[in-house]
What does this fold into?
Amino acid sequence: MRFNFLNIPRLKHIRTALALFIAIPFFAMSQKTNIENEFSLNGTWDIIFDDNNEGISKKWFLNENFEENPSKEQIAVPSCWEQIKQDYEGVGIYRTKFKTPQNWKNKIVELHFEAVNYKSEIWINDQVVGFHEGGYTPFSFRIDKLLNPGKENVLIVRVISPIILTDKNIDGLGRQEVPMWRGALNGGIWQDVSLKAKGTVGIKDVFIEPNISNNSARFNIEIENVKAQSEDTKVVVEISGKEGDIVGRKEGTLTALPGKNVVNWNFNIKNAIYWDVENPYLYKAKVYLIKENEISDSWSHRFGMREFTVKNNQFYLNNNPLYLKAAFFEGLYPIGLAYPDSKEMAIKEIKLAKEAGFNMIRPWRKPAPKMWLDLCDEMGVLTVGSLAVECMHRPISTPRLPFVVENELRQTILSNRNRTCIVQWELFNEINRPILAQMLNSMSVLARELDPTRMILDESGGWGEGANIYLPFERTPTKFNDIHHYSGSQVNEKEFNGYLVTGKTKEEAKKYGLQKGFGKNVVPGIMSYISELGYGSTPNLTENLREFKKKGNPITAVYRDHFELDEGYRNILKETGFDKIYPDVTDFYLEQQKMHGIANKRMIEATRLNNMVGGYCVHALTGGDWVLGAGLLDLWRNPKTLVYDLTKEANQPQIAPIRILPRNVYAEQGAYIEIHGVSELESENVTLGIAIKSEKGKRVFKNSITKDFNTGISELFSTKLNTSDMDGAYEVFVTIKNDKGELIVSNNQSFDVFKKISVSVAKEKVAIVDPENSLAPFLKNEGIAFEFFSKGTDINTTVIVGNLKKKNEAHKELVNSVNKFVEKGGYAIMLDVMGTPIGARDRILVKNGLENIPFDIKLLQPWDTRGGWAAKSHITTEHPIFMGLPTNQIMHGVYENIHPKNSMAMQEGNYIAGMIGYDHFPGMDLMVRHFNGTGDVWYAADVLEAPMGKGMLLLSTLQILEFLGKDPVADKVLINMIDYASKQ
It folds into this structure.
């Protein structure tokens, strides 16, 4: 159910007051207090929400007309305007009034905006100033000739937000046609506004190029003379260290010609201290222009001496190899939406990222705000500079697309190229349109021209033509595998092996029974980087909602989405009967988080065992919008229990991944145990301890050996384990202690052993439909008598329908015969469910009646059943078909192979096993609906019992047929099914 908060007219003023109260404290608002050369215009402004776009024709940009408008309201600047007007998009016309200091009378005055989303038009004192297009980057205008010195001045700004939810077309900007960030509508003046005064010769731009090869910093200074005559100006540059000591200084006299002038100075920095993640040392640069013994203009910025590049198939920071551990970052906040709720919240999330072992954060498709980047500079975390373009086909393809791409690229790089923390530009993501593929090279070359110093990744994911990186100061690309892959909840042997062979040759892949590893357009034998991996889980909504009720803003989409998601889960748990397993929905959320943590850990362990992979990026540090479940932290920046802890464990500099092959063991066949070491530290001599314990704590294996824990990847231990006397659940525990006896690494991994299964129905005959010969060999091997189903099959015989891959008319007729058999009172087990393949994105998620069985069942496909980066929880109930297996829980571990690829969407019947999920990745035509959050919660069946006439059908989408005779769990579930059916 979707619902609308605070939509009662009489609450309008309460809403406005609430939003102002909430928004103002979180955006570092300062009063309009004069300082020598600059002051802030942040504060409370007036606004007219011009929903019908009539402000231009009615000239509301003129102060008199604005004043007479009865619909003006107040708004905090900066803030997103959806904080005071629910889901508003379109036009907003802002107004504020100010006085400039008397000593500014003969100065050049600039009006500066840190970011306005999306297109802005500016007037001062009823005179036009200019316009700017771009929602995430700063811009300025000269306004001194338009001011009334010593008197009140009126500033009016008309803003057109991105159009996302409606069909509006404003000044040629239509629905989803402009660069946008998917976390919020984020319309309006959402970052700082200020005024600055300077002399007639001013600093237009400064770009610092650090070079650690010779410990120098090149200052590229652009100076503008606004007068029509040359002006002799002294240029002074000072570089100071952390303690304020001057480490570089230079001055010279420039005859500034009218217009643009350029100064390029090199500074040698003696005993340079390099910036890195452990010691984020920053220098401070100051540039002064002095004319007639007065400062005409000044500029300052911090910078670090560092270099990030790739060589020898590794990332390098300051000539030291670095294994890259990044966290994807959505950048949505519970109150501020696009901007951190507070500086403390921003510090907390960066600190938690570093404490979890991450050395990089990848802000996604939104240039990060100045305050957040300041913190990354100070706290020492590498950062990706990304553009607000190419987010799942957005902005949509129009003739404006090439312009907006280049515009965003140019503005983003120019505004952030002095940022030490930003070590790489990421231009595109998962390209899927020819026009963007065509722009790959030209935009990469432009990025290189604008910034020679950083690495440039042309396309994350490599969907277009395969990824390329441009190394610092190089204009030609280097081929590079940038890979996105989501395993979902079950990192079974096949998935684990996929990570091991990613980026490797076909011959290497074949050793693991695979054709290739993961990724698109991958070139074997070159460096690879898995820039997206991870699973998902629902945050603890119970706790989150308490926070929202205390501090949140009910009209924002993020607030509403959390309440709606929680309500959806509660309703679906009741509808499916799974509320008997999870009477407290909090327990369900926490168990999801446990699954999320286990999956993340295994993906990371597998990735780190591949010597061709130089790093990974976990999706994600924080959740948000439609990737709400991906975060290690919830939206309030609270760690999500085991998700955070287990991901942190896998991120450590030294780890010891454990593999038990196979995971589910036939007792008489035994299992292999492999323990590898992965170390980023210097080699050392260690003591390796291995113990295996049963579920009841009985130790069945113990060993202790001295080994060298080498830098890189090494095998620490392997053995064939005799399991003939074992039965049940077991766990391998590994400890590694250094020569001082200190524990430096620990790990554990579970497995199960199954003895020969007794079959109580072995003397009874079953009937099978088995055109693909998927059942008969197993039944013969187990000694279960069977016949092939026919019209003469006895009504008391259990019928099993096997693999129907061909699904031709003859097979369909066979199933029809089974249906008639069931209608007369028979019992049939269908292991290959027939139906219509759909995805949750198809929105065919309406409740399906029993009349749809068995041909018109809507079958969810792997992306929706496995989950990708969203929680898709498959739950087993306590039922005879799962006898001897874990029940009343989310499937994992022992179920990792038979875990379903397909599920029966919203199907009526008795749920023996089923899933609960939400619409996390809707079709592109429906993306609008979920722009500000997740979609509806829904359910599907994995094992379903349903009446048909006088009889009963048992339908299963578990991968039983694929693993019969290969995994004892598949064998056990089928035999349990036969046993159960014979008693009905």
Summary: The chain is about 20% helix and 35% strand. The longest helix spans residues 585-608. The two ends are 38 Å apart (CA to CA). The domain at 668-754 is CATH 2.60.40.10 (Immunoglobulin-like).
